[in-house]
Amino acid sequence: MVTWSSVWSWTPFPPMTFFSVIVAAFMVGVGWVLLATALRPRPLSRTAIRFKTAARAARGSGQYFYDPKAGGENKSPFPTIFEPASVYLSVIVPAYNEEGRLGHMLDEALQYLEWRATDTTGYSPEPFTYEIIIVDDGSKDGTVRLARQFTDRYGSGKVRVLALARNAGKGAAVKQGMLVARGKLLLMADADGATRFRDMENLERKLHEIADWEHELGAVIVGSRYVALAEASRTVRGRAPTSKNGQALTATTAAGSATEHRTAEGHVLRDWRRKLLGKGFNWMVKYLGGVCDIRDTQCGFKLFARDSARTLFLTQHLTRWAFDVELLYLAQRLGVPIAEVGVNWTEIPGSKLRVVRAIVSMALDMLRMRARYFAGIWRIEYA
């Protein structure tokens, strides 16, 4: 027969000490839940959001870009994401010591964008205008000089350079570029040119298909190295209607493209070690980062509607490699429609990523992110 005395004989503590520990743990747990509940962000009214947006737009971005027509240097002020869109597409290119790879990426991107701006036969939901914003993240090489050569060639209306004073991390660079963009759609694209740029059109089509314009949520489309191009795309979350005509989403063939380093069939070329590490990282993203059902969070090719970008990048706190996970975590919490679309991608020599070190750093960042949002220390910044 089990008695209380037999139970206490198995514990090294006196009964009062044991009960005190249980009660203290319970009180701490209750206090934590109450604190998290009290600090959890609450949506603002539409009127409050518009007032807040107008006030921020009036203050300006405080950032300046190189404009040859204004005497050079960084003398022309950037707008802010709180102002109405004035071009159709903004391309944000974070760059750190990318003098050797940036030129190839910009040549390919601009060739496609210039073709889209003049083509009248392809996919065009509205008049196509664009800008590219190269965000130099405190480079020590000639990245800024190279980027400004493209501004000289195409003009500051199409190519702008935002030079940060010191290295702040890829996430910080992308955030700075997004917050001064003019586009209705905002594309994040890596400076190495690993993703075939004209695949953007697949992301663009999917965004228009699933975007929630009515509730000002927009959409986020993730370029994915794990979704086969035969699948075209895969809706993850949100209110994605079926295609009206049932046609597959395929990239438009632009006139010429510098893509000799990619396979013609659209396969992904990756080192086997990165594939193995990628599978382990996907497990971390799901269970540490809280991002479900997205196969490729780290591909540097993502398309945002302006409404989505404004809220997500205002809230973003992580500045290093895990910032993509935070953006997708926030999008899922807010109910923003998300989809993955297959892209042509290959690994480009010259990567500065130290994979194992980056994964450890990202795991710690994801744990910190989840704890701080849960406790209400970090709050969603409604825009």
Helix content: 25-40%
H/E element sequence: HHHEEEHEHEHEHEEHEHHEH
| CATH architecture classification name | Alpha-Beta Complex
CA gyration radius, whole angstroms: 24 Å
Identify the overall geometry. Answer: elongated
Give the mean pLDDT.
80
CATH topological fold name: Spore Coat Polysaccharide Biosynthesis Protein SpsA, Chain A
Low-pLDDT residue intervals, each spanning 5 or more residues: 36-51, 237-266
CATH superfamily: Spore Coat Polysaccharide Biosynthesis Protein SpsA, Chain A
**CATH class designation:** Alpha Beta
Instruction: Classify the secondary structure makeup into a structural class.
Output: alpha/beta
Largest sheet: 8 strands, mixed
Strand content: 5-15%
User: How many domains, as an integer?
Assistant: 1
Q: Could you give the count of β-strands?
A: 10
GO molecular function, one term: dolichyl-phosphate beta-glucosyltransferase activity
Subcellular location: Endoplasmic reticulum membrane
Keywords: Endoplasmic reticulum, Glycosyltransferase, Membrane, Signal-anchor, Transferase, Transmembrane, Transmembrane helix
Protein name: dolichyl-phosphate beta-glucosyltransferase
Q: What can you tell me about this protein's structure?
A:
This protein is α/β, with parallel strands linked by helices. 40% of the residues lie in helices and 14% in strands. It has one domain: Spore Coat Polysaccharide Biosynthesis Protein SpsA, Chain A. It has eleven helices and ten strands. The strands form two sheets. The protein has an eight-stranded mixed beta sheet with strand order 5-4-3-6-9-7-10-8, with helices on both faces. The protein has a two-stranded antiparallel ribbon with strand order 1-2. Strand 3, helix 4 and strand 4 form a beta-alpha-beta unit. It holds the Pfam family Glycos_transf_2.
